[in-house]
Amino acid sequence: MAMPAPLRLFFMGSDPIALPLLDWLAGEGSGLASVSGIYTQPDRPAGRGQKTGPGPVKQWALARGLPVRQPEKLGAEETAWLAAQAPDLVLVMAYGHILRDEFLRVARLGTLNLHASLLPKYRGASPIQTAVACGERETGVTLMRIVRKLDAGPMAGAERVPVGPLDTALDVERRLAGACVPLMARALPGIAAGTLDFTGQDEALATRCRRLTKEDAQLDFAAPAAALAARVNGLNPWPGCAFEFREQTIKAGLADAPGGGADGRVAPGTVLGADAEGLSVAAGSGVLRLRRLQRPGGRMLPAGEFLRGFPIAAGEVLASRPMPVLVSA
Predict the structure, then answer these.
(1) Which of 153, 174, 208 is the last residue of a domain?
(2) pTM for the complete prediction?
């Protein structure tokens, strides 16, 4: 019996989180689906030099001679171009454009999205950072059908990944990138056969996370130590968390809450001491240990190495700032 032809798949995305999946589709998964074209964001300035150049998904496509589309907006012209390619499936991940109904209907088997959370939690723009910053010990990537409400479409499965106490958002993003492969390996045969089951989301459990800003870097040491540590790790590498000390902004790149507590008479933000593991600071409850620190113009360093060149003595009080809320119902 002849094997069915691979699905003619068009991918829409701009973030490097999709690269492991694209590599799999170009290799081991090519018998299930063939990437036939790419939609990605227009070239933008990036890096310290702010040079304009192709993003990672575009570079991947060009290296394989695939057609690349980079519209500022998805209008009638792009809908017509895609229709002319006769796609079986459109797969979206971290693309950054609103897709109109007429565009969503072009592919024979529909338009699906990979969202980097366990839906219905953390719909929106920053699901990886927010899940880590909120202290989740598990997150994942969900395959869903796109509808006109943000990340609210019916789901066809998820792949779960653990979040460790010292994982940053970047660590979890790498894990989620790899998790897309087994999820799609399971789903593609059912998509091709028209037998993949989709289940509606429970709206009562839905939460939304917004686009992060520089103001989210602030730390309020009156918060519990565990919440502060999760926020430091979740907002690394961007926007990062920071505090003011001696008129300098010190960034914190990694933290934990090792247990124990400060004397209740000690004000939150008071430095309790330092050891090889980090700088200990009194929190609203518990002790926050800052394990990596960076001063302006410097590198992010283990706290012990940082403090040898920039000592912060026990008894100093680090200034608190209100922390914006990251999640809404």
Answers:
(1) 208
(2) 0.95
Q: Which residues, including other chains, have CB under 8 Å from residue 89's CB and lie 6 or more apart?
A: 7, 8, 9, 10, 33, 107, 108, 109, 110, 111, 112, 191
Average pLDDT per consecutive 10 residues, the chain (329 residues; last block may be shorter): 82 97 98 98 82 94 98 94 98 92 96 98 98 98 95 98 98 98 98 97 98 97 97 97 95 93 82 95 96 96 96 96 95
Please tell me the predicted confidence (pLDDT) of residue 45.
83
- Considering the domain boundaries, does residue 325 fall inside one? no
The CATH number given to whatever domain includes residue 272 is 3.10.25.10
Instruction: Clarify whether residues 72 and 161 are in a common domain.
Output: yes
Inter-axis angle of helices 56-63 and 19-26, to 10 degrees? 10
Full domain range(s) for residue 288? 214-320
Which pair of structure tokens corresponds to residue 263? 């004397």
Give the CATH number of the domain where residue 11 resides: 3.40.50.170
Domain contains 1 = no
Cα–Cα distance for residue pair 116/141, rounded to 1 Å: 4
Q: Is 326 exposed, middle or buried (0-12, 13-18, 19+ CB in 10 A)?
A: buried
